[in-house]
Amino acid sequence: VQLQASGGGLVQAGGSLRLSCVASGFTLDDYAVGWFRQAPGKEREGVLCISVGGGSTYYADSVKGRFTISRDNAKSTVYLQMNRLKPEDTAVYYCAADPSRYGCFLEGGLYDFWGQGTQVTVSS
Known about the structure:
By secondary structure, the protein is mostly beta strands. The protein contains no helices and eleven strands. The protein has strands at about 1-5, 10, 15-25, 30-40, 45-50, 55-60, 65-70, 75-80, 90-100, 115, 120-124. Strand 4 and strand 5 form a beta hairpin.
């Protein structure tokens, strides 16, 4: 059972990146999926999440209008499209799977499986 996050890198402020979260060993479409991030010296922060069927999403205020989450259940993959990146978006980004059947929540304790993280660095 594994989640694999990928797609991070170094980008200039104002640029874009797309992160992917792929599941192996279990069916990701049975889970709500969230993206979290942790910057050096800071607490982990919930960024956004998507429900099982994709009909419900929740975004942290810090990323509204810039980040978008989507899922392709046929590929057992969830995407995080990040546009207009800012230096304060620099962090390790983690995807996680929550077995909640309805809605999604940015409460880390709800998530059963976590990916290993992918580094996003935004230069000014």
